[in-house]
Amino acid sequence: MNILITGASGFVGQAFCKFLSQKEEVKLIVGASRSKIEIKGCHKTVNLDGNNNRLTAQDQLVKDLQNIDVVVHLAGRAHVMKDTESDIETAYHEVNVEYTCKLAEAAAQSGVKRLVFLSSIKVNGESTIHPFVVDDMPSPEDAYGRSKLAAEKCLFKIAKSSTLEVAIVRPALVYGEGVKGNLLSLQKLIKKRVPLPFGAMRNKRNLCSLDALCDLIWLCTIHPDAANQIFLAADAKQISSVELVNALANGLGVQARLVKLPQSLLKLMGFCLGKRDQVARVLGNLEVDVEFTSRTLGWIPEQDTQAALARMVSSK
């Protein structure tokens, strides 16, 4: 089976390529962008550059996708807390929507059987009263989430008018080897023994193990029941911010310094610093129900998030 991966140099992409390198039945083909990277087990590299508005011509995309069985589309403009773009909506739309649709149209024209798209739980929303389920009405609250939802809609529209099948994966916050962003920043603070104001928090949030996510993406490439479906991805159990910090501290071999501050004070501090929305997200719940994903595909999510987080940091 010929599988083409976009975003092979990214956090999830590198892990999934490593995962596929162990599958003898797979010929891994990398859709490269500006950066050239060495991918173990890579059979071929094609130039699929969707960055900086240099969208590959449609006829070239169609040509590059000849003889490809499955496209796993992991490339995209990632979510960041401090975005410096003057027009954030356009920046996300150009990469996450326009290029995704262009790639899917070329895949359909080339006879590709299936396209697996890495979306985000942010399509569902930023917080929960009840756990998110796959049938929830989408409620994205930022440009990134809206771009992922728009891309999903475009993919299903193309699938409806062609023989291309699509499978959508919406993971919660992903952690694993090589993680960056907020989780990496938190690790550094814990290691430096910086006091953290989360001691009084009792929120519940689902994370998503990188290893389990790779297994789910693989199932979406081969399972017949994955066609034209959306799958939520998260670990089996929720953890609190306190449990998250303690798990990372345990893996680092240090004692976490947690300070108990009332949530009302944290919200006030967020308001004064112009970070009200960010603080509200940290304090809130984000629970994800993956029963449909597990039942449909036979997928087994990570069962012990705290142990997996400790292993992640202790392996460095």
From TrEMBL:
* Extent of the signal sequence: none
Q: Which SUPFAM superfamilies match?
A: NAD(P)-binding Rossmann-fold domains
Q: Where on the tree of life does the source sit, at the highest rank?
A: Bacteria
NAD-dependent epimerase/dehydratase domain sequence ranges:
3-227
Instruction: Name the Pfam families for this protein.
Output: Epimerase (PF01370)
Q: What is this protein called?
A: NAD-dependent epimerase/dehydratase family protein
Naturally occurring in which organism (per UniProt): Spartinivicinus marinus
